[in-house]
Structures are given as C-alpha cells and as structure tokens.
Amino acid sequence: MIKWYEEVRRVVIANNWKDAHIHTIVAAYLRGIVVDYYKKVKGVIAQWAGKNAIANLKNLLIIWFALNSIKNVWYSDYLNCW
At 13, is the pLDDT very low, low, confident or very high (cuts 50, 70, 90)? Predict the structure, then answer.
C-alpha cells in the first residue's frame, strides 16, 4: 500500500494535480474490493491527503488495508495455534 501511495505521489507531482481533484482521479483507478470500500466511504471524502484523516482518501485506504491485513495475520496465527 505504501509503495502504491508513493507512485500516486510521483504522478501527482509530475502532473501538478491539485489536492481537491486527486481523490477523484485516484478513485477512477481503484479495482476489486477497494472499489467496494470506496463506495462505502466516498460521501465523507473531501481530499486526497491532509490534516483530517477521516476525510481524506489516502489515510482511509491505508487504515483500512492495515486493519484488514493485521486481522488476517492474527486469524492465521490463531488457526496455526491449534
């Protein structure tokens, strides 16, 4: 996820995109389960990044993926304990 964010950052800088539009551009490139998550939270997203983590797509995606990844690791560890 962090590698993906860095790639987005490079493209944003190269194209001189303004923050108010980045999240809508990035949303067009989302695929799979990420699109489902985006549809659930798009009403609260106001920007790509910024001080308000709840209203920016970058942090919402990082938090969502981190939490789901951690849950998967914990569940896998739990299953391996038996």
Answer: very high
